[in-house]
Amino acid sequence: MTRRLRALALLPAAALAAAVLAGCAHHDASAGSDQGGASPSAPSASQLAHMQKLVDGADSAASAAEKDASADK
User: Fold this and answer.
1) pTM for the full model?
2) With contact defined as beta carbons under 8 Å apart, do 63 and 69 qualify?
3) What is the pLDDT along the chain (73 residues), one digit of tens a residue?
């Protein structure tokens, strides 16, 4: 049961990593054709705040899952 809880705890972090990588792939593909090789612009403050919320949620879920797993032992 603890392996299942650990896997569930890692799921939000894995989803976040996949979303970030998918977003970066989109920028890499369009950077060469539209901008003539210029580097993409920095993320806005609202985008950074949204990503921080996602990371905090993943951390919270992982912490809760670890507490639950340690209580099961």
Assistant:
1) 0.43
2) no
3) 577 777 777 777 777 777 777 776 655 554 455 555 556 688 888 989 999 999 999 999 998 888 888 887 6
